Amino acid sequence: MHLAFEGEVLLPAPSWVSYKPQSIIAKNNHHWIQTSAENNWFPKAEEIEKIILKKPDKKYLLFLNSPNNPSGQVCKNLKEISLVIKKYNILVLSDEIYSELTFDENYISIFEHCTDNVIISNGLSKWCGAGGWRLGYFIIPKEKIELLKSMKVLASETFSAVSSPIQFAAISAFNANHEQYILKSKKILKAVGEYVYRNLSSNNIIMNKPMGGFYLLPEFLNKKFDSSSILCDEILTNLNIALLPGSDFGFDQKKMIVRLSFTDFDGDKFMKNISEKTDISDELIKLYAPKVVEGVDKLKSWVEN
User: Fold this and answer.
1) Could you read off the pLDDT of 164-207 as tens digits, one per residue?
2) Which of 2, 69, 128, 130 could form a cystine bridge with 26, CB 3.0-4.6 A?
3) Can you give the CATH number for the domain in which 89 is found?
4) Is residue 2 part of a domain?
5) What global pTM score does this model have?
6) Considering only CA atoms, which of 54, 58, 61 is closest in space to residue 85?
């Protein structure tokens, strides 16, 4: 899609690490939109408009990823953003790969506010727990038919088909009813995410409560390094905990912000030992997600020293 689009790319900071290099490969200019924890790490409408007004004659493509990787947050100001989208007729890629893992039951897409301008991307890898099985899809409005044609041409010259094993897995994924599986997945992820949030949040570490997916975005207030990359190296070396630096996602490297993924546990074992009605206590998390608990304890001790 980057290659089919010709114009300016708007990336909220934080954004998934691939968006920026993809825009560079496609020779499109990219613009970072700084965000804040108070707004769930999503851009405000006036910040988007401010960039557009600098070059109003250009075409714009805004990326929105909700629930977000790396923050685990859901965008709550979609209606406000949609007014700017319609006002300037800009294109939006709504990356909804984590939508099935939203902890709130009522997931809302920006498509509901401005149907003609929004392309939705989704796939199987997240809700199926099948990372690396890259079968995705686009939902493109009829008004963007020319863009769809260009994307088909580009795709046909890049790859011929999804591999057979992934196609067979997808048939099972789409044909069967996975409602109970998804409900239990969300229940576990929410419980584990909130455990990490409750036990790490302090005067030394601040973060937003998780709203979907399996990520948190802690900021270390009492640790000063030259960059968030060095901070992550220090934690990996001394605590054997792998985190990703916030600078990879568009933040200033001086901000001690990192991405924390809380999925280092046997999900199949956890799922088999609970029901949809199980109240997931801290004791169950300690039993079925011991590495996550250990990691939290290590980080908590480290920041207090």
Assistant:
1) 999 999 998 889 999 999 999 999 999 999 999 999 999 999 99
2) 2
3) 3.40.640.10
4) no
5) 0.94
6) 61
Total residue count of the chain as it appears in this document:
305
Instruction: Looking at the structure, tell me whether residues 93 and 109 fall in a common domain.
Output: yes
Average pLDDT, the chain: 95
Question: ∠ CA(180), CA(71), CA(305), 5° rounding?
Answer: 115
In a domain, 3, yes or no: no
| Domain final position from 157, 172, 187 | 172
Output the domain CATH number for residue 226: 3.90.1150.10
Q: Is 114 left (phi over 0), alpha (psi -120 to 50) or beta?
A: beta
161 and 253 housed in the same domain? no
Q: What percent of the chain has pLDDT over 90?
A: 86
Please tell me whether residues 209 and 85 are part of one structural domain.
Answer: no
Is 115 in the same domain as 248?
Answer: no
- The domain in which residue 266 lies consists of 179-304
| 221 lies in the same domain as 115 | no
162 with 22, same domain: the answer is yes
Residue type, 65: N
| Domain identity same for 22 and 155 | yes
Distance CA 229, CA 71 (A): 17
Residue-wise pLDDT tens digits, 136-159 = 899 999 999 999 999 989 888 877
Axis crossing angle, helix 45-54 with helix 78-88, rounded to the nearest 10? 20
For the record, the structure tokens of 72 come out as 């685990």
CB-CB contact of 252 with 142 (8 Å): no
